[in-house]
Amino acid sequence: MPEILEHGFMIRALAAGLIVGTLCAALSVIIVLKRLSFAGVGVSHSAFGGLALGALFGVNLEAAAFIFSAAVALVTSWMTRRGGVSEDVSVGIIFATSMAIGVAALGLMEGYSIDLFSYLFGSILAVSPRDLWLAAGALVIGLAAFGAMFTRLIAYCFDEEWARVSGVNVDRLEDALMILVAMTVVISIKLLGIVLVSALLVIPGATGYALARNYRGMMAISMGSALMAVTAGLVISYYLDIASGAAIVLSSAALFMLASLSGSAHRT
Amino acid sequence: MDALNIVETKNLVVRLGGRVALDGVTLSIRAGAFTGIVGPNGAGKTTLLKTLLGLITPASGEILVFGHKPGEAHHLIGYVPQTPRLDPKFPISVFDVALMGRLGKRATGDDRAHAARALEQVGMAHAAATHFGSLSGGERQRVLIARALAGGPRLLLLDEPATGVDAPGQDSFYAMLKDFIVNHSMTIVMVSHDIGVITSLVDDLICLNQTVFCHGPPAQALASAMIGQAYGTQAELLLHGHAIPHRAVREHGCGPHEPPHA
């Protein structure tokens, strides 16, 4: 057995990483096709507000982060639908505000105990057995929900008006998508960190988009590249002792660059 | 509702962004007829179609589509939007676009057969595996019609469907639409700004500019001085086809001029 797999924390990090990579890759296909990357950044940053509020009030951090970021995402969608504010403006206002709430909540705590650096940038040491079970549960729920919505999500990305004409409740579909994004962000925070999780919600999908001519192929490439990036990133993180979030995102970005070069060479 | 009419509206008023887009629109669409809707830019033609589809909620008035409220009859309607803003790089095949027409329909187990048949109907079966974005404008429009047909609609709503289709392509395109009515018992409503082409094709013509200015068989509708009012200050209508084979120029509010060399 390689030395790297002799550590329990590393096995947990790899298992959690593969789960996180699968969910992020699936969602990134929709995020790229519908150009929602800014919303992904917003949801992940608002999870910081939820975590800090959870720490301030002494409640479960993951539950607080999930409820807070999902609620913030739904409020943002509602504001955009009501009109008067464009989506980028409402995302810009609300998510920055929720990040500020997080900073203020941390300031109110005397000698807070959470490891801020690992929450912001991820750590291979951070995944507990409980985190792994939580991630496994999220994987089952996430893939079941995503699979059930997939055809409608593709129609929504390709031609939203057609989806509406076909009887799809697009508003509810968007809400469900944002809740899935919030759930994925929360289980990804330990490995990827709040600042970097949004990258894995975009880059695998962008890699698939660069290479594939069909959304099924895009999904397969997105999944494959995310799992490769997570595995490579965790190994790099272990040997070079750098934050796991940074190592995974850099690996993912490298795969995207290769795909872009290969994709443009293929098309010319 | 008259059993022969599949769409009926009465005093329909639609406001968009504080502006009145449709004002007291009363009309009916006969089952099995090819109905054309004409009018100048901004007349509310697309708004009317979107209201029939349930995409826009009217401020007041009555509207029934197959005896239902708009939006409740979506399984009976096929819609082809006006030059949809679709991403040409979107990774999707022609077949998958047609298959999207089965969205929201009761799963019958042979959705793929419906999509394949729809592509055959529009003459695009050979391109099923092709990337949608690599098609020409006219070919894309045919595939979007296949998407609308795949759901097995009884009513087809087309919004400026010939945009981007070259002249020879338009002839076969319109022949295809005629075939849908004759051989597939379909009702078609087509919005167009090209009065000349539409009058030679349709059974009924509706002239719209916020409200209905004329409604009836093309010869009767165009003979009415109301068409000039619908088009505002000056309307130059190039009328060809069999019904009215001449060129007519009308001034605002005036009756029709007889052209010197008909």
Polypeptide structure, described:
The complex is a heterodimer of chains A (268) and B (262). Chain A is an all-alpha fold and 268 residues long. Helix content of chain A is 82%, strand content 0%. Chain B has 262 residues and is α/β, with parallel strands linked by helices. In chain B, α3 crosses α4. Classes of the chains: A mainly alpha (268), B alpha/beta (262).
Helix residue percentage of chain B: 25-40%
Structural class of the secondary elements of chain B? alpha/beta
Gap from first CA to last CA of chain A: 45 Å
Order of helices and strands of chain B: EEEHEEHHHEHEHEEHHEE
What letter string, H or E per element, gives the SSE order of chain A? HHHHHHHHHHHH
Radius of gyration of chain B equals 19 Å
- Provide the spatial order of strands within the biggest beta sheet of chain B: 5-6-7-3-8-9
What would you call the shape of chain A? globular
Q: Report the sheet-strand fraction of chain B.
A: 25-35%
Measure the end-to-end span of chain B: 42 Å
User: Could you tell me the number of beta strands of chain B?
Assistant: 11
Average per-residue pLDDT of chain A, rounded, comes to 89
Largest sheet of chain B: 6 strands, mixed
Counting copies of identical and different chains, the oligomeric state is heterodimer
Output mean pLDDT of chain B.
80
Would you identify the regions of chain A where 5 or more consecutive residues have pLDDT less than 50? none
Name the pair of protein chains with the most residues at their interface, and give those residue counts: A-B, 24 and 26 residues
Specify Rg of chain A, calculated over alpha carbons: 18 Å
Report the uncertain regions of chain B.
233-262
The residue fraction in helices of chain A comes out at over 70%
Present the secondary structure layout.
The complex is a heterodimer of chains A (268) and B (262).
Chain A: H1 8-33, H2 37-57, H3 61-82, H4 87-108, H5 116-121, H6 129-158, H7 160-165, H8 170-192, H9 197-200, H10 203-211, H11 215-240, H12 244-267
Chain B: E1 5-16, E2 19-30, E3 34-38, H1 45-52, E4 60-65, E5 77-80, H2 94-99, H3 111-121, H4 137-150, E6 155-159, H5 167-184, E7 187-191, H6 195-201, E8 204-209, E9 211-216, H7 218-223, H8 226-230, E10 234-238, E11 247-251
Parallel strand pairs in B: 3-7, 3-8, 5-6, 6-7
Antiparallel strand pairs in B: 1-2, 1-4, 8-9, 10-11
